[in-house]
Task: structure prediction
Amino acid sequence: MYNAIPIHFPNAIIISELEDQILDDFKDCGLDPENTLWATSFCSDEVNNVFHQFNDIFAGPGPFILGGISGLPFAGITGMKAFLSHVPTHGAAIIMYGPHIGVSRDGQLGQVNRHHQFGLSTCCGSLVGALSNIEHKEELPTSNPLDYQQARVIQHLYHKRKEIFSDSYPLKKATDVAYDAIHLKLTRILEAIENELTDLKIYLMGGVVINTDWDIENYFEIRNMDFRVYP
Result:
């Protein structure tokens, strides 16, 4: 693992270092963490509950959950408007977002050892499952209304399948594709409601969560940082 993460994610930092960077950015932007509400658009997987220390930094309780499986912002416009309506008066919002991928102790991508399990399990299971679903299919698989979120994940990867499966590390490439989709959708959601936003500041932190075995600190590779002011 210690060699795999720098090779595949050279800019990754541990979560505690991410916390320090965000707090430094807040100082530069003139933001008060205690007057800032936080939200995430990460995968529903419990291994992504690694940001719990942010509850001690930002206004709570939090986070507001914008994401579903794979991290896509399934809460949509309605969820975003609800979250922003909860922001403290004259305060700010921070939204952290992105997909996740596991890296086991022995360096396997897409695998982690979870607490109290004796073997490895997939991570992100949604992306791994979607890749398995589309790998040998020429047509988009029929969606299941009882599995709506996974159907949307499959659709995103299906349209990039040639690019994904021609890569040396298909799951890593799929994670990149998922990141682009999450980033684009959040951007479009905010653009759709920007005329309704006043007296608000929004700090956006996008990247890839890199999950490790349960007894090792997780990592985050920053892909985008943005600060928006709505007077």
About this structure: The beta strands are 13-14, 36-41, 59-65, 92-97, 100-102, 111-113, 120-122, 200-211, 219-230. DSSP finds seven helices and nine strands in the chain. Residues 99 and 175 are 6 Å apart (CA to CA).
